[in-house]
Design goal:
alpha/beta, Rossmann fold, two-stranded parallel ribbon, 11 helices, 13 strands, 43% helix, binds nicotinamide-adenine-dinucleotide, binds thymidine-5'-diphospho-beta-D-xylose, NAD(P)-bd_dom_sf, NAD(P)-bd_dom, dTDP_Gluc_deHydtase
């Protein structure tokens, strides 16, 4: 990737995609075109304050070949974040997950093939299934795929399409599988923002089951830095795992949020567990660290959470409109 390139960022009005766009504007000379259909999870407000001469939003669907084709043709690289991203939604109705995650990725790959455009595919550690709490091994790029949910199975399918388009058609693609992200602008349906905004509303946090499930938390900015390194120096056809050794169980996350917000650590409720709930994710990021020299900057989870809490406190107008509908959906599912 040259120093002043034009990036097509799909899903750039969502959580991780918008953090990537902000990061690119701050840390590089690249221009960005965001392609985003502004589903319930996308918000133009997440791109507010960015320079209009460097960032342009195109509202459109990644599965719409006619719209995708000229955008991919004009880009130096595609960074593909757009997806249906929430496990609980995929359990309630998987159809949009197949359409966006599978058909959308296929549509972009076909355009990248036609125009010879560099392609980076954003994926998740959930494609590997889950680990036992006491398993000494973490996920590596060699771990066999074994997804559990409709969401993770469609992400796994999209990864396999990318691999096949590299091998069969010579598409210049890379893949990254990242662990759980946290930070500003995450939809309030997700675990950490849901609990923070519940507490701001005077509602007790909601822990699924016993809450011993472990997630490997990484700040969204560390994810963005890793993706930029892969765009600059990653080897075509390779898969890089992104993670910052941030394993914490859900109960400890809730306790940390509670104490950071001045509440007693046991001031939460246990609610119905998620069907098929993955026990533990853990990433071995040795390849990314050793080959590309990436290191995480946010290594203190409590202080990263404190900043995230402050962001939600200061930006109620960003999340308020999401909250009632999300909680109504959760009430229906017993969560
Ligand atoms: P998000 O739900 O916050 O954002 C998704 C964005 O994609 C939204 O702006 C939405 O409007 C857009 N979108 C959805 N369908 C679209 C379509 N058909 N056409 C165009 N745009 C569409 O998701 P996120 O948490 O930011 O995740 C972004 C990517 O990162 C996803 O591919 C996800 O699988 C991956 N990922 C997420 C995490 C995590 O912890 N959240 C971890 C690893 C990987
Ligand atoms: O209210 C809750 N209480 C609770 O205990 C919610 C919403 C979640 N949970 C639990 C379920 C999970 O063990 O917290 C953990 C995190 O839940 P989510 O935020 O839904 O994330 P997860 O299912 O782990 O998936 C996330 O990380 C990987 C992203 O949503 C995916 O897009 C990404 O691929």
């Amino acid at each position: 990737l040259e120093a002043m390139s034009s990036l097509l960022v799909t899903g750039g009005a969502g959580f991780i995609g918008s953090n990537f766009v902000h990061y690119v504007v701050q840390h590089t000379d690249h221009d960005v075109v965001v392609l985003d259909s502004l589903t319930y999870a996308g918000d133009e407000a997440s791109l507010a304050g960015l320079p209009a001469d460097r960032v342009r939003l195109v509202v459109g669907d990644v599965a719409d070949a006619e719209q995708v084709d000229p955008l991919v043709a004009a880009a130096d690289a595609v960074v593909h974040y757009a997806a249906e991203s929430h496990n609980d939604n995929s359990l309630a109705d998987p159809s949009a997950f197949l359409q966006t995650n599978i058909v959308g990725t296929y549509t972009l790959l076909e355009a990248a093939r036609k125009h010879g455009t560099r392609f980076h595919h954003i994926s998740t550690d959930e494609v590997y299934g889950d680990l036992e709490l006491d398993d000494p091994e973490k996920f590596t790029p060699e771990t066999p795929y074994n997804p559990s949910s409709p969401y993770s199975s469609t992400k796994a399918g999209s990864d396999l399409l990318v691999r096949a388009w590299v091998r069969s058609f010579g598409v210049e693609a890379t893949i990254s599988n990242c662990s759980n992200n946290y930070g500003p602008r995450q939809h309030v349906e997700k675990f950490i923002p849901r609990q923070i905004t519940n507490l701001l509303d005077g509602v007790r946090p909601r822990l699924y089951g016993e809450g011993l499930n472990v997630r490997d938390w990484i700040h969204a900015d560390d994810h963005s830095a890793a993706v930029l390194r892969i765009l600059e120096a990653g080897r075509i056809g390779e898969t890089y795992l992104i993670g910052a050794d941030g394993e914490v169980n859900n109960r400890e996350v809730i306790e940390t949020i509670l104490t950071e917000m001045g509440r007693s650590a046991d001031d939460f409720d246990h609610v119905r567990d998620r069907p098929g709930h993955d026990m533990r994710y853990a990433i071995d990021a040795a390849k990314l660290r050793e080959e590309l020299g990436w290191e995480p900057q946010f290594t203190d989870f409590r202080s990263g959470l404190r900043d995230t809490i402050a962001w939600y406190r200061d930006n109620e107008s960003w999340w308020r409109g999401q909250k009632a509908e999300v909680e109504a959906k959760y009430a229906k599912a017993g969560h």
